[in-house]
Amino acid sequence: MLAPKLGSSLIQHSFRRFSSSSKLNISMAPKKVCIVGSGNWGSAIARLVGFNAERLPGRFEKNVSMWVFEEEVDGRKLTEIINTDHENVKYLPGRTLPKNIIAIPDIAEAAADADFLIFVLPHQFIKRACAPLIGKLKPGATGLSLVKGFAILPGGGIKLISDLISEEMGIPVSVLMGANLANEVADEKFCETTIGARDSEVGSDLKLLFQTENFRVTVVSDTQTVEICGALKNIVACAAGFCDGLKMGDNTKAATIRLGLKEMMKYGDTFYPGGNASTYFESCGVADLITTCYGGRNRRVSEAFVTRKKSIVDLETEMLNGQKLQGPETAAEVNYVLAAKGLEAEFPLFTAVHKICIGELQPEKLLDSLKNHPAHQ
Q1: Is 77 designated active site?
Q2: Which of 32, 90, 148, 233 is catalytic?
Q3: Would you state the pLDDT for residue 148?
């Protein structure tokens, strides 16, 4: 009677060992990476991710798929140019992409079997672009959002892009935000970034995937604060651009940045309570705010809005080579929420930027929002 029991026990023990070792092998298998988006920032990020995927074969699959919205450039398909010449000639000209970055025009094909999906495209296009992925992602897949902005809810209001992606795709989503102007990252100039990841193991993997000698990564668990910083700083950058266009000087611009940071922190405390104040002093916060207010596209176009007397839409077309401006859109989305809750007076800089962008207020009136700011009372 002992033999059958012993045999059964051995079989069960062997099965458990096989099952656990299979799970271990699966978890230790190199992870496949997909970049969803191929604009200026997406292509700059592809240089980092492609480099690390190739040098860490035990952690990541060598080839990194990149979904590219198909366009024609000088009679050739953009995917063909990227896969043959290894350069995104439209959105990141003059910088070589790693040969293991594979451009794919079909988003479902690009994302097939991916363990990590890096979302890096304008926030206005997230839902439409990612619709073909619903229900088709690999079990256990995880996302990383580099998207700066908020999602607009159908009935009004906003939500975090990471929450939108997570709900639509059914996957956990971390975020990456920082003082990372795309062209400088592509040129390998030193900078820092912040990854917000609730799962420490995921955070460690993502740090390996992104960090290089000149792109240093800090991981925090305060994902919501990391993300709202990436969205709200673009509103402040518009205000900084208006200051530059009006030639208000460096002191006024510094005041604008400080008061803008105060409003960012107040917005976080009001709508996403429980965040860590120290997160605002990571790269995703004050550092990103400073670089965007001095070197970003939102500042540049907002300055031109004052000096050239043209609409935001016209300036986007003329100055951004098909890219979209985030600041005015985010200002409108935030203002909808503030107005609905009667909080516009508590966020005078955010409110003024929105009204200037839609033509309800002259740029010169920005100064009133600074002089009469609640921070001075």
Answers
A1: no
A2: 233
A3: 86
